[in-house]
Write the structure tokens for this entry.
Amino acid sequence: MKYKRVLLKLSGEALMGELDYGVDPQMVNRLAREVLQLAGEGAQVAIVLGGGNIFRGVGLAAAGMDRVTGDQMGMLATVINSLSMQDAIERLGGQCRVMSAIPVHTVCEDYIRRRAIRHMEKGRIVVFAAGTGNPYFTTDSAAALRASEIRADLMLKATKVDGVYDSDPKTNPDAIRYDRITYDEALRKKLGVMDATAIVMCRDNGIPLRVLDIYSEGGLLRAVSGEDIGTLVSAE
């Protein structure tokens, strides 16, 4: 494996599969199998999940709800998604720990950086839930923060498209995909790879980011093995 310790960022929508809402067990199981492939090859794996398949704080705030309350509901949604991922991994024979940025003692552990690293060193997959524990921060920012804290060698963002484009490929058939792009270019061109806070954090901590298609089976293993798939966002 080219990268020893990786953090995988998945949106909540990724867990919906073909459903309109919630968690698709078949999709979660497929993702869990791919994560276990990485662990089986010796990679230390951490995961950050969004909560948009259940609640999205920004949307709730736009509808009139207090933004802080909406974001807190979104954080709890990520705990639900994280528990579903833990269940899938463990049913497939893996070891997994969910660590939450907000205290939910009866269902998962509190996030403690040193303990998280120790879990990974023992071969356990760690799922970081509840974002950063603070409102106004996206799960992209939470993923970049946790990747920095655990000193990840690579951050993976699995999306519904096969990389970073200069415009939305769903609406523009002539959109151009980048094989490689720098952090500063992504920021300057406002390409929507991740939010600006997350990109800056990856840049400042020297963590390469690879964006790839979530529906490409085996894509995670290929990316962590060093294969040039999707789009690599890095310093050069």
